[in-house]
Predict the structure.
Amino acid sequence: MSTKVCVKECELGRGLFALKRIRASEMILVLGGYVITVDQVRAMPEKQGNTVQIGSRHYIDVEPPGLYINHSCQPNTGVMNDTILVALRDISVDEELRFDYSTTMSEEDWTMECRCSAAQCRGLIEDFHLLSETLKQRYLARGIVQRFIVDEHYARIEAARFAKAQISGLSLRKVTRGQYPNAP
Ligand SMILES: [Zn+2]
């Protein structure tokens, strides 16, 4: 159990709060728990908000106190190396700790209405891949995106680049043929 946090009531029910001052980049706690599969999560819909995705088919069934951390579209913490909650800036005593759930989500079929009340609230919590490019880059640069999602992200860029190269290769051949219809 981390000595840096406690669980208290907040406007979303319960939340995780700083017990002491936490400095930027400081490790706060490990989001620990048993690893469960996507099928187990789907069989227990009430679990969906209490898990952290660590692979395309695997989740951590997060135990208290990490279980109580809420989402924010303007978070003061992030998850590094899949399970370590770190401070993104200095956090004062009694401040609620929140991370952006989208940095741990690549599910394609699950979204949640956002009630984080941040000035830049996106209104919907959805997959990392659906965030704006600017926000994706900001989170990637800080190292607070799940490792499997980082891999997916670069694989998608590579696939898009390959598809683009194929399309331009095809149109080049078409133009060449059209211009020289009687070429041998
Ligand atoms: Zn929000």
Notes: The radius of gyration is 21 Å. The chain has a mean pLDDT of 90. The helical segments are 38-43, 133-142, 147-179.
